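R.M. (postdoc): so does anyone remember the format we settled on? I'll just put the structure tokens first.
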């Protein structure tokens, strides 16, 4: 069976979605004849397209010859999808003879336009929910504490753009004429999909970790908490340092280690100024690239020795960060957004706090540092079994079953 993969990249690991894509798509070659059509974003401001395509083809994935002729020098990077005419023109250049099209990380609609034009069945996976208007507004507001009044411009742009993005994604789904299924990485993601005409599947397991992480587990913890992800407000970096400030105000000095990449210079300045002005004990480790062995080992060692991952994120569809922390033997306190809550609600080493309730999160962090109940739970058989089940081979097999069922039905 020939399956065409349409997505933005098979070489990056900048997000949970891209990590999932890289680990799954290459494994799909064990089950299908796989070819890759890059979406438009792959080509935007990318001066290494041929180099990346060559790397992909060496790993058993076919690249159609016409892909090498694609050029999008007239387009600029965009948070929102481009106009329909851009995707229509793109799809005209793609001639397929495959049995199925699969988009493993639906963010832009190329797969839908190509499926419609070639009259081939399509399946997509969502790694982020389709946010409601209230979620777009309130989640963005919560993520900016305690810098809301310094960030009104970001609040307006982010809230509106997130809502428009959801509207665009939903609109394109409605235009799909050959959509066989929509898969989601958590029940929270699935519940956000309003269409009732298309089959929906919950991937289980939805994401995985490598077994090597279990080798870093240790009960010999050091006296600090950790936070690592992309360092943007929706992922909780501002809420995180606010929690540290509230703990200090109560006379509780907490050391923290932070790793990740700041995408916005404005919030990077906010972060360091707030840490300095409030004399917070925060060590910034920089961006630790898991594709580099030295960085990966350092990150895993730091996380495994932490007493707690404090994770006030309001922008996750599943959260591989939480899964990796559990694998490394570090418990988690997180916001109870529907996506992450539905994925980890039965894991005893994860404590949930109502979205945006920073005072309650501060209280739970204080309780855990005093009592260590989550730390005891993270080494239970139940948590270890949960982590071991969440491996990339199992994830791939769950997707293979869905694709085969779609083709055969």
């Amino acid at each position: 069976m020939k399956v065409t993969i349409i997505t933005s990249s098979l070489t990056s690991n900048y997000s949970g979605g891209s990590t999932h894509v890289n680990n799954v798509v290459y494994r799909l070659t064990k089950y299908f004849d796989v070819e890759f059509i890059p979406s438009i974003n792959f080509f935007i401001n990318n001066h290494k397209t041929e180099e990346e395509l060559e790397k992909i083809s060496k790993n058993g994935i076919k690249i159609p010859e016409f892909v090498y002729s694609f050029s999008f020098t007239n387009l600029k990077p965009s948070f929102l999808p481009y106009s329909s005419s851009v995707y229509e023109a793109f799809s005209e250049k793609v001639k397929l003879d495959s049995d199925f099209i699969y988009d493993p990380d639906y963010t832009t609609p190329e797969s839908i336009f190509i499926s419609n034009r070639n009259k081939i069945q399509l399946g997509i996976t969502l790694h982020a929910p389709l946010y409601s208007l209230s979620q777009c507004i309130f989640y963005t507001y919560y993520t900016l504490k305690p810098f809301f009044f310094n960030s009104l411009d970001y609040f307006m742009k982010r809230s509106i753009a997130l809502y428009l993005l959801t509207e665009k994604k939903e609109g394109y789904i409605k235009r799909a004429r050959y959509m066989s299924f929509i898969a989601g990485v958590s029940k929270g993601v699935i519940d956000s999909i309003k269409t009732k005409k298309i089959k929906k599947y919950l991937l289980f397991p939805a994401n995985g970790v490598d077994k090597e992480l279990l080798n870093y587990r240790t009960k010999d913890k050091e006296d600090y908490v950790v936070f690592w992800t992309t360092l943007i407000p929706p992922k909780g970096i501002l809420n995180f340092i606010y929690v540290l400030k509230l703990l200090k105000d109560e006379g509780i000095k907490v050391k923290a280690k932070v790793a990740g990449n700041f995408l916005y210079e404005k919030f990077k300045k906010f972060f360091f100024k707030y840490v300095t002005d409030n004399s917070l004990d925060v060590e910034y480790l920089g961006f630790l690239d898991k594709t580099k062995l030295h960085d990966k080992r350092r990150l895993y060692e730091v996380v495994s020795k932490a007493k707690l991952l404090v994770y006030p994120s309001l922008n996750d569809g599943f959260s591989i960060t939480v899964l990796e922390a559990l694998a490394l033997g570090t418990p988690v306190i997180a916001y109870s957004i529907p996506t992450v809550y539905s994925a980890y609600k039965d894991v005893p080493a994860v404590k949930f706090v109502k979205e945006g309730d920073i005072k309650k999160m501060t209280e739970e962090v204080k309780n855990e540092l005093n009592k260590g109940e989550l730390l005891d739970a993270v080494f239970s058989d139940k948590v270890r079994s949960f982590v071991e089940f969440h491996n990339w081979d199992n994830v791939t097999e769950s997707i293979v079953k869905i694709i085969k069922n779609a083709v055969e039905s």
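R.M.: ...and that's the designed sequence above, right after the tokens. Also worth knowing: The CA atoms of residues 353 and 360 lie 7 Å apart. DSSP finds 16 helices and twelve strands in the chain.
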